[in-house]
Write a structure and sequence with these properties.
heterodimer; A: mainly alpha; about 65% helix; about 0% strand; B: mainly alpha; Four Helix Bundle (Hemerythrin (Met), subunit A); 9 helices
Chain lengths: ~110, ~260
């Protein structure tokens, strides 16, 4: 994993991130991890843990999406501007979806 | 072009020798290739964020209705073909990997590698759509297409009120007629979400074909690979959408 880290630490201070070429080894490791994640999410859906099933499914999906964003989409090796942009987008997304859902899910509470 | 040269040299006196050696694809309103690349991928990410918000609306609608009509969503979800769904996940993740390899080949100026990666991505993308089409056809045969757009195949929820056991699979739990009617909501969302995802795949395949045509004629070997990189971002984004669609649509309480 050492070579995954190399190359971007030294450029942190620069205004623009130096172009970093992600190696095929990294891509292969991520590809393999995504396959494992897919197998896990299918297996988990046949396991009855009541209200935790969707939580597990979404946790695995979020982990897979994070791997894709960081490595396949190079965000891990990008400048702070890019990281902030992606982070701000995800944050805004969670605010919009989270607040809409907390409204709809709780409207009928206590009325039955 | 010569005008912008003049402006650049007079406005930026500390930029000695800047024109001595820069790639022909560096636009003159950018200071350096790093700045140009950063600007391009920044713009691409802003576009992808609008896409995330757009799909987010569909996911929110899905989650609200799933919360309201949970038994209907479970029963309707169990009619989906889990083998084809899993296979499509595999196909799409592999196509993301081949696309990532394509970006690497472009970065390291490997012409044949780039062409091979793009061809593999194209075939996998078409394979995904083929499997998806087979699933859509199954919905048509089972009368699971919402509304009554197809004569003789209007949406029919009767199968959820009187479920029958089929080839080795035990019968699903029977739903009350009013809950069974809500399976139509599930299938509406199923077609809206997978249809919008498939539309993104079709657009991606069109762009990919153009890129492949250019690559076979020696394109992207001069270091000007912004298009390949940003198309890669788009393709991976479409993969991420499917990563969420698959468990939400196909994998609800499979243990029942």
């Amino acid at each position: 994993m050492a070579d995954l880290q190399a190359g971007h630490e030294t450029h942190e201070a620069e205004e623009h991130a130096e172009h970093h070429i992600v190696s095929p080894v990294t891509y292969a490791i991520i590809f393999f991890s995504l396959l494992v994640g897919t197998a896990l999410t299918i297996a988990a859906s046949y396991w009855d843990v009541g209200p935790w099933n969707p939580v597990i499914a979404l946790a695995i999906a979020c982990t897979k999406a994070t791997l894709v964003v960081l490595f396949f989409m190079h965000v891990k090796y990008s400048s702070k501007l890019m990281k902030l942009t992606v982070g701000a987008g995800v944050f805004t997304f969670l605010i919009l979806v989270g607040m809409s859902l907390s409204d709809y899910f709780t409207r009928a509470w206590g009325q039955w | 072009m010569s005008d912008s040269h003049a402006v650049a040299t007079t406005a930026d006196t500390g930029h000695v020798g800047a024109h001595a050696a820069h790639p022909p694809y560096l636009r003159h309103h950018f200071e350096s290739m790093e700045q140009q690349n950063e600007t391009t991928s920044f713009g691409m990410w802003l576009f992808l964020l609008t896409e995330i918000m757009f799909f987010g609306g569909l996911f929110t609608a899905y989650l609200i209705y799933r919360n309201w009509y949970y038994p209907a969503f479970v029963a309707a979800s169990h009619t989906l073909n889990i083998v084809e769904g899993s296979l499509n996940t595999l196909v799409l993740i592999t196509s993301s990997f081949t696309m990532a390899m394509g970006v690497w080949c472009a970065e390291t100026k490997r012409k044949n590698g780039l062409i091979l990666s793009l061809v593999a991505t194209l075939i996998l993308g078409l394979g995904f759509l083929g499997i998806k089409a087979d699933e859509y056809h199954e919905k048509y045969v089972k009368d699971h297409i919402p509304g009554h757009a197809f004569p003789g195949h209007a949406f029919d929820a009767a199968g959820f009120v009187h479920p029958v056991a089929e080839d080795g699979k035990p019968a699903e739990k029977a739903l009350a007629p009013d809950m069974a009617a809500h399976t139509e909501v599930y299938f509406s969302l199923y077609f809206a979400m997978t249809g919008m995802h498939a539309l993104h795949m079709i657009i991606g395949i069109a762009l990919l074909s153009g890129m492949l045509w250019k690559a076979t004629r020696g394109g992207y070997m001069d270091g000007n690979i912004a298009f390949v990189e940003n198309f890669g971002l788009y393709w991976h984004f479409v993969d991420i959408v499917w990563i969420f669609l698959f468990p939400l649509l196909y994998l609800i309480s499979r243990y029942n």
